Prior knowledge:
Elements: H1 3-18, H2 20-40, E1 45-54, H3 60-63, H4 71-83, H5 86-96, H6 100-105, H7 108-118, E2 119-123, E3 129-136, H8 139-196, H9 205-253, H10 256-260, H11 267-282, H12 290-308, H13 318-382, H14 385-410, E4 416-421, H15 434-459, H16 466-473, H17 487-520
Antiparallel strand pairs: 1-3, 1-4, 2-3
Helix pairs in contact: 2-15, 2-17, 4-8, 5-7, 8-14, 9-13, 11-12
Amino acid sequence: MDVKQRQLIKKYVDLVIHRWRLISISLLVGLTIGLGYYFSLPKTYQSTALLSYEQQQINPAKMDPEQGRSRLQESLATLKELVTSRNSLEKVIVQFSLYEEARKKLPIEDVIETMRKDISITPSNKGDIFSVSYQGLDPQKVMKVTNALASLFIEENLKYREERATETSRYTESELAMAKKVLDEKEQQMRDYKLKYFNEMPDQRQSNLAQLQALIQQNQGIQNSIQELERTKVMAQEQASMQQRLAAMRMSSEPIANQAARLPETDAERLQRMRLYLENLQGKYTDKHPEVRRTKQLIEQLEQKVGKGPTSVQQGPASASSNRAAIAAGLESQRLQVQLKQIDLNISQLREELATIPPQIAKYQRYIEAAPIREAEWNGLTRDYNELRRHYDQLVAQNLQAQSAENLERNQKGSKFKIVDSARLPEKPSKPNFLKIFLVAIAVSLGLSVGSVFVLDFIDTSFKDVGDLEEYIGVPVVCAIPYIEKETEKRKEQLVFRVSVAAVSAYGIFLVGAIAYFWIKGLIII
Length: 526
């Protein structure tokens, strides 16, 4: 620190010491004004109730859609608006006869706004807890109003949550009904489409292919059977023609008498003839041929008859044998005619059956060809179905949750507020704050007095020391003669100093005593 800085500091210190009377008087006046201001302010009392937010008791993660740490802030903000609404506060004002003078002079809206300013709702950082405070002039009313506001929080919360749960339930039911209607319409369209084009659907493709293959095989099998029957028919026609030629030859070679004396063919002779016929058939066809199977059955029947009949047959004369041969030939011819008719009937039936197969083949081919088209149409029809179904399932779950939440609220088992600490009678006013006013008065008075000292020094143009003079005239001072006080001047200055100190001290002691007195009497609350 150089010489100039030390001189500057000394100058200001000397200036403050020189003006100590002004500073002391300003400080005492400021304290007096502060004390008067304190007594002029009405005593305001404040009471606080502590409330907690309790989680619902039954599985809150599943039963209530309201989740997360923000639910207290959200509920608190909503309930604050409800509790501090005009209707709620007006009822409290009338119930406890609040702001009677203000109600006589001001509109009710201004009175309610004043009460809103007197209410303080503060959430705590320690969990789901918040406080409700109210300030007023009457400590009894302040306590009662605070407890009433806390109770109003609980009542409004129950009513609000029940109304919200009911509205949510109604909304979800309405949305669910609408979604169900849309989903039912979509499902009806899908059912109608599937019933109309069932055989052409992609999931029927494999079945249609199998059915088409079976029809093709059936068609080929019927054609093969018709060809086999036609070959059998040709063979039977040849046999019948041969029988007719043999009969004609026999008729022309035998006498008429012998023809009349013919005997019918015996079972043994017919059995022998059928065995020869079977050998002839087996040389042309397989054992699965219908004529071969029929001939075998006929041979078995004849063998049973021959086994039950006489063991031997007497041979007749040549004429009798000829007659029997002629009769046998006639019977064989009749059998062949019957067989031809049966073959024609079977061929006709097979042809009728064969005629029905191509339309069926064409139908299944059409089903198979239409499958890609139906698949594209079905995809377009069902594109929104999965989303509609998922939306419907979500609404069903939300509706169940809303109904459960509504039941919880009706049974008062949902999330709710609880009074942890009721408001108590305030023992001392919260406003005005004496220490705060006292410190402000000291700071203001000191600031004003010191500022006044510097302002007076600034406007004072006299020279206080040699440096000021040298700086002003620019010429060094050769000699400085100090001020020499007279004895009378010294006595006068000492008298003024003693009187000033005594007056300031007396007033300061009086002021401190007054403050102590008022504090003891309870008029000043620190």
